[in-house]
């Protein structure tokens, strides 16, 4: 993501109608990622203060993004640029479950308007469905098993999975599943 203080490329800045919102999105997404990296290096049991900080930040980001969307719709590409739209999606992925459900509708509308990617909607839809105890549709969500192995959450109609993924701009499930990294990073 761009640094709001450093981004001096006028062609990229002109692509953003709402520079303040863009800067807020990027700042919040960077902080989210920073805390998650620190927590993955020191599990919550080892650092309860860090875990509490992540929980508080997540609640604040959830409330903030929900308010932005309620006030002015999904922060899409034309308003906040590609990196701002990606930051909005990241915050939605890490929002509280009840907020994710509301944000999914706004994100799906943004996809229909060309303001977000179908892949972003697929990830958030899977996140919402898994949170509701339903099978995921696109195979984007994994659970960490004993020993650190990541296994996909239940998948609806697995025979049609790759066709659904392709329709959303996602590659084959086998390639997604084979990506290296901890389960947490594979959940979005």
Structural features, described:
There is one protein chain. This protein has 188 residues and is mainly alpha-helical. Helix content is 62%, strand content 3%. It is built from nine helices and two strands, in the order ααααααββααα. The chain has helices spanning 10-13, 19-41, 48-72, 77-93, 97-112, 118-131, 161-167, 173-178, 183-186; strands at residues 142-144, 150-152. A two-stranded antiparallel sheet has the order 1-2. A hairpin with a 5-residue loop joins β1 and β2. α3 packs across α5 (97-112) and α5 runs antiparallel to α6. The longest helix is centred in the first third of the chain and has 25 residues, at 48-72. The radius of gyration is 17 Å and the shape is globular. Mean pLDDT is 87; it is low at 1-11 and 182-188.
Determine Rg (CA atoms, Å). Answer: 17 Å
- What general form does the structure show? globular
N→C terminal distance = 16 Å
| Overall SS class | mainly alpha
Key traits:
188 residues; two-stranded antiparallel sheet
What are the SSEs and their pairings?
Blueprint (H helix, E strand, L loop, with lengths): L9 H4 L5 H23 L6 H25 L4 H17 L3 H16 L5 H14 L10 E3 L5 E3 L8 H7 L5 H6 L4 H4 L2
Antiparallel strand pairs: 1-2
Helix pairs in contact: 2-3, 2-4, 3-5, 4-6, 5-6
Give a short overview.
With 188 residues, the chain is mainly alpha-helical.
């Amino acid at each position: 993501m761009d640094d709001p203080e450093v981004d001096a490329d006028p062609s990229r800045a002109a692509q953003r109608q709402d520079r303040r919102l863009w800067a807020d999105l990027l700042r919040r997404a960077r902080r989210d990622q920073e805390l998650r990296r620190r927590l993955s290096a020191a599990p919550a049991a080892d650092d309860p203060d860090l875990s509490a900080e992540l929980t508080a930040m997540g609640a604040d980001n959830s409330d903030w993004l929900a308010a932005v969307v309620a006030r002015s719709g999904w922060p899409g590409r034309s308003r906040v640029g590609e990196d701002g739209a990606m930051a909005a999606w990241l915050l939605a992925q890490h929002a509280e479950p009840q907020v994710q459900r509301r944000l999914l509708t706004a994100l799906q509308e943004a996809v229909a308007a060309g303001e977000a990617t179908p892949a972003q909607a697929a990830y958030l839809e899977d996140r919402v469905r898994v949170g509701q105890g339903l099978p995921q549709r696109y195979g984007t969500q994994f659970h960490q098993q004993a020993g650190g192995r990541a296994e996909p959450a239940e998948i609806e109609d697995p025979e049609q999975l790759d066709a659904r993924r392709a329709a959303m701009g996602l590659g084959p499930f086998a390639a997604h599943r084979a990506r290296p990294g901890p389960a947490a990073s594979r959940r979005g």
